[in-house]
Every structure is written in C-alpha cells, then in structure tokens.
Amino acid sequence: MRILIVTPAAAGSRSGNRVTAMRWARLLRQCGHRVSVATHFERQRPDLLIALHARRSHASMVQWRARYPSAPLVLALTGTDLYKDIHNDADAQQSLELADRFIVLQEAGVHEAPEQYHARIRVIVQSVRAPRGQFPHRRGVFEVCVLGHLREVKDPFRTAEAVRRLPAASKILVRQAGGALSPEMEARAQREIDENPRYRWLGELPRWRAMHLLARCRAMVLTSVMEGGANVVCEAIACGVPVISSRISGSIGLLGDDYPGYFPVGDSDGLAQQLQRLEEDARFRDDLLQRIQACRTMVLPATERRLLNDLVEEF
Question: Would the pLDDT of 229 be above 90?
C-alpha cells in the first residue's frame, strides 16, 4: 500500500512528532509498504493518509477528504490533542470526525477521547532499540537524568528544585539534556548550574549520546505536566532504567496505575522524597527495576511494527 505520513514537524527536526513519523515510515517499509513523509498533504496520491496532530494537521485532513472522500485516514493523537485541543479547539474536534481510525501511544489515552470514537482507537506504544554495550554507573555519585527540551509543559526545572531539598549526605547528581527553546529557559538553566551543585545542564545532545547517558544513570526523571505517551519513558524501559514520573495519564498508561515511582505534578517535595527513597532503599530500586523490565516486550520494534501493519491491513 502507498502511505503518506503527515507531521507538522519539518524535516531535520528532533521533535517527538518527527521522530515518530520517521520511525513509523521505516517500520511500515519493512512490511512492504511504500511510505513517504511530508509536513502537509498536497498533490500526493497515496492509498492511505496517517496524520499526526489533530489541530496542526487539520488542513491536510480537510484537503484529503475533499479530494478522496472514501479513502482511509488515520489520525495519531498527540499529548496536546488528548489533553487539550480535542476538548476546546474546533479544528481538532472536526479532525476527529474526519478520521476512520485513531492511534494513541498508551492505554490511558483511549479514555481521553470522546466515547463514540473508542472502538476506532488503536494503542501503539512507541518502540526503542537500546544502545549496545555496557554502561556502568558512575562511581562516587548517584546519577539521575532528565531528558527533553526545556519548555513549560515539561516543567523542566522541577528536578533541579527537588534536589536542593535533599540531605547534605546525598550523592544524587542531576544531568539534564535538552535544548532551551527560549532565552529565558537558557538563562534559568545557567543560573541552576551556577547555584546548584547537584545540577548539570548538558544542552542538546545527539540522540546516541542521550541514550548512553540514560543507560548509565540510576533513574530517569519525567516531570511533565502533560504527555501523550513520552518516548523517553519507552527509552528508559528499553534500557532497563527505573523511572520517577509525575503522576500523569501519559505515564500511567505506560507504567500502570500501581507503579510506585510517581509523585504529584509540580510537587518538588514529593519528587525529593522519591529521589531520596530511590537512593537509600535498595528494595524500592529493585521493585522499580523489575516493573520496568516487565514492560520491555511492549517497546520492542517488532511489537510496534506488527501493530502498525495490523492497522494498515484493516483497510
């Protein structure tokens, strides 16, 4: 089948939407399909359109339906879609009406969509290949990492604030990787470097370096206010690294409601308590690690490839 994937993220972008689109294209080609990726639909003549982002790909979906009224259209719902736009944006709401099927990136995402669409939703968790090799923990410190661009929805300095509350004897060191998307964010990161001895900001790293950092750390911390299904959680699962996460739907849908590594959104004290427990309580660390290892099948490329192909075969 000829498939066009439309993503609002431009070629060369390291945004999650672009990474997802390129990975899906690769996996679907492995299944024998002819796949192209574009930022919008124009004069292409595919058999199937997969659009990422209900609001930002709305124009492409409208044009697709005008040109091909009965051709299949799949809408992948992002975190912004699920937890914001489909509830209050007219374009995003119309995009729901135009689509034949929907993709969400974790189980809890199903319940964020209006009930009349649930039967058409397919859950496809993002896959990750763990880096090859051994990545031993650094001696003398208890490293945890925060991965992702510095922007408001990520609450990016919550971990830096939390480690200021740790006891003096703690060896926890935060390494944060991700580009600053505003001068204000960069200035804040620089202030943290200057004032916080437990914090290091590494800026934007190539993906392979970020994965190596993740693989050697004791834990990955996710502080987001909202996520559709954070790829960094899938990366931590693939690397066998425990996750400490804000208690948000996007993480619950991947790790489970009873996962013990959550803290309340925006709660620096709660995060500090989880980090201190992680450092001091070996049984807690082992419990988190076992739960992460139990999720590994979910993030295998073969699993994502099969689910994507199953969806295409529905048409």
Answer: no
